[in-house]
Amino acid sequence: MMTVTTLLKEIADVGRDGVRGGYTRPVYSSAETELREWFRAAAHSRGLGVETDRNGVIWAWWGEPQDGALVTGSHLDSVPGGGAFDGPLGVASALSAIDHLRQRGVQPSRSIAAVVFPEEEGSRFGVACLGSRLMTGAIDPDRARALTDAEGRTFADVAAANGLDPAHIGHDPSGLARIGQFIELHVEQGRGLGQCGPSVAVGDSVLGHGRWRFLLSGQGNHAGTTLMEDRRDPMIVAAKIILAVQRLATSTPQARATVGRILPVPGGTNVIASRVELWLDVRHPDDLVTADLVQRINDAAAAAAAEEGCDCVLIEESLSPTVHLDPALRARMALALPDGRVLDTGAGHDAAILAAVVPSGMLFTRNAEGISHSPEEHVEDADAEAGAAVLADVLEALL
Ligand code: GLV
Ligand code: MN
Ligand code: MN
To answer: Which ligand is nearest to the CA of 79?
Structure first.
């Protein structure tokens, strides 16, 4: 029987980022590959049957692979400089929950699988939940194959280098048929459970979210010889866009909009940039409000670009509607919790993508400060263990 804390200790040194702090574990990097190997080894040591499907999802089976199984898991990839728990907590809890059930002497009436989804964060190829989107057919495989990382490598090439056949990625009805119910345990990423709440809550809604990319172009030039009035500087446009994002989102109740990634080209101290790529993340419960907010941001961007004599193009990279996780599953899961607390989340999850096709639910483990996507993300050991025990209770109840 392994505790979640012990499992997470085994991977505590994998993908540490000495520059940003925390962990940088982009999908199919050496760090994430090492974590995938760790998961396979942990599954083998438990006598679970391991297979990797055509979209790179790893399945570890307690019992024979079968349709309608009880499936639980999360992801191992991270944002740049992320915390130790976003993803790995759900994977370690899945393994630990299986240990709990065995220790309790449970003989499952149907098979249970622990799973790992690739590229949940979209931090390498830009589209979040790429594995579950491929599996459910929510992204065109041609588009997925053509996605590129920061080095210009396509997803097709990277997938092939990691043992997948890029021609066979995409909608996987037989894989989906394997999932009777999917439960993802995840670190809580806000202060929903706070300092004194219970250790675990059941998920209700997953906030609608999307990603857009502005391509801004101007005239690259010399920082010393180009007079201020002669410039066409896309960094000025980017600065105005960032302020417009803050102004427009702040005046839209419940909206969250973020610019967290901006890439000036060529990126030199004494160089006026010729191009800037700026990524925008917008979230709101009402998808029509999201669309309207993005439109208003784009209008402000177009005006800023015109003022600077620059060009501005907006590309939608991904869009996910607000999802209500399966109500019947949620109610059954809440019964297994000491106080039945229910929480919404502002973060995206594979469970929300799968929810379009199979009954999906989530559990959130307390993170007292609510900090996430940061090295400071934290879960107390006792809460992590309580989470895995509740996951085991939920799985047992659902069997
Ligand atoms: C994933 O964690 C997201 O919400 O972007
Ligand atoms: Mn995340
Ligand atoms: Mn996550």
So the answer is: 2
32 to 8, 14, 16, 58: CA distances (angstroms)? 14, 8, 11, 13
- Between CA 202 and CA 347 the distance in angstroms is 14
Condensed to tens digits (0 to 9), the pLDDT of residues 126-153 reads 999 999 999 999 999 999 999 999 999 9
Q: 17-67: per-residue pLDDT in tens? A: 999 999 999 999 999 999 999 999 999 999 999 999 999 999 999 999 999
Q: Residues within 5 Å of ion ligand 3 by Cβ?
A: 86-87
Torsion of Cα atoms, 335 then 340 then 345 then 351, to 10°: -10
Are 247 and 343 in contact by the 8 Å Cβ rule? The answer is no
Give the distance (Å) from ligand 2 centre to CA of residue 148. 20
Sketch out the chain's domains with CATH numbers.
4-207+322-398 (3.40.630.10), 209-320 (3.30.70.360)
What residues flank ligand 1, with Cβ below 6 Å? Answer: 121, 128, 347-348
* Strand partners of residue 162: none
